[in-house]
Amino acid sequence: MIPSEFEYHAPHSVAEAITLLTQYPEEARLLAGGHSLLPMMKLRFAEPAHLIDINGIKELKGISEQGNVIRIGAMTTESELIDSALLNEKCPLIPAVARLIADPQVRNRGTIGGDIVHGDPGNDHPAVMLALDARFILQGPEGERTVPANGFFLGTYSVGMAADEILTAILVPVFASSTGYGFNKLKRKTGDFATAASSVVVQLQGESCADIRIALTNAGPCAFRAEAAEDLLKGQVITDALIEQAAQKVMAACEPDEDLRGDAEYKTHMSAEMARRSIRDALTKAKG
Amino acid sequence: MSTSTEKLEREEKLEGIGCSRKRKEDPRFIQGKGNYVDDVKLPGTLFADIVRSPYAHARIKSINKDKALAVPGVHAVLTAADLKPLNLHWMPTLAGDVQAVLADEKVHFQYQEVAVVIADNRYIAADAVDLVEVEYEALPVLVDPHKAMDADAPILREDIKEKADDGKGAHKHPNHIFTWEVGDDEATTQAFNAADVVVTEKMYYPRVHPSPLETCGCVASFDKVKSHLTLYITSQAPHIVRTVVSLLSGIPESKVRVISPDIGGGFGNKVGVYPGYVTAIVASIVLGRPVKWIEDRMEHLSTTAWARDYHMTGALAADKEGRIKALRVNVLADHGAFNSHAQPTKWPAGLFSICTGSYDIPVAHAKVEGVYTNKAPGGVAYRCSFRVTEAVYVIERMMDILAQKLGIDKAEIRRRNFVKPEQFPYHTALGWELDSGDYPKALQKVLEAVDYDGLRREQQEKRARGELMGIGLVTFTEIVGAGPSKACDILGVGMFESAEIRVHPTGSVVARMGTLSTGQGHQTTYAQIIATELGLPSEDIQIEEGDTDTAPYGLGTYGSRSTPVGGAATAMAARKIRDKAARIAAHLLEVSADDLDWEVDRFKVKGVPGQEKTMKEVAWAAYNNVPDGMEMGLEATNYYDPPNFTYPFGAYLCVIDIDKCTGEAKVRRFYALDDCGTRINPMIIEGQIHGGLTEGFAVAMGQQMPFDEQGNLLGNTFMDYFIPTFVETPFWETDYTVTPSPHHPLGAKGVAESPHVGSIPCFTSAIVDAFSHLGVTHMDMPHNAYRVWRKIHELGLDKHE
Ligand SMILES: Cc1cc2nc3c(=O)[nH]c(=O)nc-3n(C[C@H](O)[C@H](O)[C@H](O)COP(=O)(O)OP(=O)(O)OC[C@H]3O[C@@H](n4cnc5c(N)ncnc54)[C@H](O)[C@@H]3O)c2cc1C
C-alpha cells in the first residue's frame, strides 16, 4: 500500500509539462486527480520514477461555450461538472453521469480528462464521449491536434494518443432541439464501477429517429458503440418491439470479462437492460 | 417528607438505568480526538512490514534476505529460522491448535506471513519487503472442504500429521480437526422415522469478514533495563493477551503491561493473537526499541480472523399440524489452515447447540465436523456469540421451509412451536436452560405493527401481476454472556468478568472493568449502572478499561458479554459499597442499619422524616468518621461468575421488492423488535441495533470471501467486499418488549449482537419468500443482484417480449 519512490514535479504550464514528459520518456506519468493512478502506484502495478502533477496548470481548467460547442478543460473535476450551470442546461448528460461516479471524495479530485485518458473500460466518461460524439484536443511536442472520440478508445488502458501528449480539452456539441439522452448504470454499491452502464443520445425528426448513439461501459475491453443496434433504430419510429430487437443487437456486441460483479452472461444481459432503459429515457426526453 | 415528584427529580439527575444519556465517548470520536494504536508515537520507534506468500500451498525452498538487509535503514529481517531458537515460530491458538507465526518450511494459505522486515520507517520497510527473495515450490491446493478428507487430498498440516493417530481425538484423516456431537442421535432418528412430515435443506453460510473500521496493529516496547514489556494493541481482550504474551515470552505477567486504547471496532476480529503482534514483540525485545506494526486493509481482509464458512444440512420432523418432533443438523466447518476458531475451550463449535431456537423441540441432534483447507485461519464470532449466528440461521430457515411444505403461514408455524412463557426456565433438547422469554407477545406486536395480513394481500396482488415481493420473518433466541466458568474458559481462565469501584471523599467515582469497549459505549452505560446503584450522578463517574496495569483481570468484550457479565460485576461491586455505606450512615445517624431505607441517593431513618444521609455525605464520612472496627475508604471489587447465560430474543420482519430485470433487491421495510431484558440506555441500545442490522444487511446481501481453485482470495478490498454506506442502508424501525433475566442482578441480557444474528436469516427469508410461490425453498447468501438474477433467469422470469 506504499508506492515506490518517485520524483515529484509541479509544472505551471502545458508547455512545461510536455518538456518534462519528453525529458523522462518511459519514466514519467501525469498526475491529475490521482484516483486511478495512485491506487495502481500503491499496489506497485505502476512505478513511475517521475510524477508530473498537472493540478497547478490553470489553462487546463474551466468550462466555456464556443458557438454550438462546449469546451471542457481536461482538469475539470467531476464535482465541477456536476455544479456547472452551463452543462446542466446545454449538455445535461455529463453532469448526470458524473453524479453516479464513485463518491464525493473521488469526485472532488477525479477529472474528466483523467477518466477519459486512463482507458479503463469501467470508466464512464469514455462511453459518454462516444454517445456525445465529442472531440479531444491533444497537445504534444509537435503542437496541437483534435481527434474524434469515435476511434480513440483502442483497448484496456490503451487510447489513441502518444506518451508525450496531453489531453488539454474536450469539445462536446450543445444539445440540439428534439435531442434526448439517457444514462443508466447498474452498480453493486456506492463507490463501485459499473456492472453495466449505457449512455444514449437520440435525435428525433418528427416521430422518427434521425440519429442515435448507444454507447456501453464495462461491456468489453474498452467503451464502444453498439452500431448494429443504432442502425436498426435510425430512420424508424422507435417502438417497444424495435427496442427489444436493438437490445438483442447490444447483447451480440458485448464481450465483458467475468469478475465478482457477475459472469459474462449476466453482464451481457445487464448491458442490454441498461441500453433499453437509456433508449426509453432518451426518447422521453427528446419528445420533451 | 419527600414528594414523589421531588424523588423523581433526584432520580432523573442521576442519569442512571433507563436514561437515554448521551454517549460520553462521542465528543472525542466526533472531533477526531480518539487515541488509536496508530496514534501511539514513542520516540525511536521502528516499523514492521510483512513478506507474504503469493501461494496458498507451497514449500519454502529458500529465503534470501541479503538485498533487503542491504537497504539503508533496515534493522532486521526475521524468518521462522530466527524465531525457532526462541520457540516462537509457532504459537498456540484459542482452539488448542498451533499457528505458524512465520511460515515454517511451508505456507498454508495465500498471504501467509513468511518474513518480517523491521526498518526506520514504513516506507523503507515496504521497499525492503519487495527485496526479500523467497523461492517456493507450489503444492496441490485444497480449497473445497468437502474434499478435505478424500483419500487423495493433499495433507496440509505436516507439523501435526503424527497426531492423526495419537489416539486422543478420533482423527479420520490428517485434514480432519474434530467431530463434535450433541443431543440424542437415536431418539432423533426414531422421531424422524415416525414423523408425518420431514423437511431437509442444505445451506451454505459463506465465509465473511468482520472488517472493523480500524485494522489490526500494535506497538511493542521492551525496556531492556527493566526487562519490562509494554504492548499497545487493538485487542478486545487485553488481559488474555497479557497472559498469552507472558506464557510465550517467559516475561513474568507482572512485567507485561497491555494497553488497548480506543478500538475502531472489533466484531470478534480482535480477540485472538496475530503473527504481526508476536513478531513486533520479538523485534522489540531483540532490538531494544519500540516496534510498530499496522496492517493495511488488504492484509486485514486476507489474513485476520474471518467468520462462518459453515456448510449446513438442517432437517425437521413434524406432524401434519406443523408441530415439531425433532431437529437434526449436520455441519461441515471449514476452519482454514490452522484451527484458530474463537471458542471457550470445551466448545469446538462454540454455542452452536442453541440451534433449537425459540421452539419447543423434544429431541435433537447436532454434529459439526471441522476440517483444514488452504485458507486463512479464523472462525470467530462476528458480532455474535460463538457460532450462534449459524445456529439461528439454520433453525430459522428450517422453520420457513417446514411452513412452506405444509402450506402453513410462517408466522403461524412459529406460534405453534414457541416455547411458551409459562415453560421458562426451559431446558432445551441440546442442554441449555433458557432463562426467560415471551415469544408470542413479541411476534404479535410486530405482526400488528406492520399489518402483516395487509402485506400478504399486497403480495398476492403483486404475484398475480408477475412482480416479485418477499416477506421475511424471524423469531430468534440468542445465547450470550459467556459464561458460567464451569462451562466456559479461555485457555484455562474461567469466563468471569470483573469490576472495581472507588468512591472518592467528594463522592465522585472511578471504576475499572476487565471488559473493553470497542464501540458499545461502556463509559456511558457502566456509569449509569453505578449511578443507580449508588445514588451518585453518572456525570461524576469515570469508567476506565483496557490498561492491564490498572484494570482488574477480565476476559474482554465479545459474545455480548459486557452487560450480562461485566454489568453484573459492576452492580455487585456497587452493592458491596452500598452495604458498607449503609453501615456508615447508620453510624452517622446513630441507628442500626436495619432501621434505614435506601431511597434513590440517600439513606433514610424509617419513620423519621428529615433524618437522612446522602451517599455523598456518607462518602465523605468514609474517609474520616467510620464506626469502630471498620476499615476506612469506600471501594469494592467484584469478580462475577454468572450462574447461566442470558437469552435475548426478538422478532424481525422484512419486506423486499426485487427488480426482475437486474436482480436488485430493495429492502422496503425492516421492523426489528428486540427483548434484551432491562434496558440500561435505550438510545445506546437503538444505536447498537442500527449498527447490527446494517452489518446483518451487509452479510446477507453482499459480503463474501471467495476463492479460486488455486486458493487465491478474490476480492480483498472494499471495492468488492461489501460495506454498506448510508446510501445502501435501509431505514430501520425498532421496537422492544422487556422480559428481564431472572438471574442477572439487573435483569439485563445484552443486545448488540441480536440484530446481526436475527436479521441475517430475515433477509434470506424475504428473498426466498419472493420466489416461494414458484417452489423455491432456499437461496444461499449473499443475495447480491447477480446471484438473485441467476435465480430469476433460471426460472425464466426475465423474458422480454
Ligand atoms: C473508489 C473509486 C470508484 C470509482 N468509480 C468510478 C466510476 O464508477 N466511474 C468512473 O468513470 N470512474 C470511477 N473511478 C475512477 C475515477 O473517476 C478517476 O478519477 C478517473 O478514472 C481518473 O481521473 P483522475 O483525474 O483521477 O486521473 P489520474 O488517476 O491522476 O490519472 C489517470 C491516468 O491518466 C493520465 N492522465 C490524467 N490526466 C491526463 C491528461 N490531461 N492528459 C494525459 N494523460 C492524463 C495519468 O497519467 C494516468 O495515467 C473510481 C475511482 C475510485 C477510487
Describe the fold and architecture.
The complex is a heterodimer of chains A (288) and B (801). Chain A has eleven helices and 14 strands. Chain A is α+β, with helices and mostly antiparallel strands and 288 residues long. In chain A, strand 6 and strand 7 (143-148) form a beta hairpin. In chain B, helix 17 packs across helix 18 (754-771). Chain B is of the alpha+beta class and 801 residues long. Chain B has a seven-stranded mixed sheet with strand order 3-7-1-14-11-12-13, with helices on both faces. A five-stranded mixed sheet of chain B has the order 9-17-16-15-10. A four-stranded mixed sheet of chain B has the order 20-30-31-32, with helices on both faces. Chain B has 19 helices and 32 strands. Classes of the chains: A alpha+beta (288), B alpha+beta (801). The interface between A and B is medium-sized, with 27 and 32 residues. The complex binds flavin-adenine dinucleotide. Flavin-adenine dinucleotide (FAD) binds at residues 29-37, 39, 74, 101-102, 106, 110-111, 113-115, 117-118, 120, 123-125, 166-167, 191, 193-194 of chain A.
